[in-house]
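User: New here, please read:
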Amino acid sequence: MAAIGGNAAGPGDAFVSVYINHEKKFAFVEMRSVEEASNAMSLDRIIFDGVHVRVKRPGDYNPSLAAPLGPNQPNPNLNLTVVGLGLEYPFRILVSGLPYYFTEA
């Protein structure tokens, strides 16, 4: 997140916790803030180890409950070119399409 300028809450790790379901190839990532979770959404379709990784909100996400906590759209000024993405392209995001061999370590 720091590489693209998405650490809105300041220096340090934007990620609070990660749960990976290896069998179903998805993960829940908890972020420090709604704004950082929204910025992470800009990484949708990033290629990781040759696989397109999907980054989206979980099915139970309610934008009206998250709205008072921060923006629900990524900051348009993020530098996505450093991770190979062009600009055209509450605290959890869903990351799916992970390679089978991917582990938490």
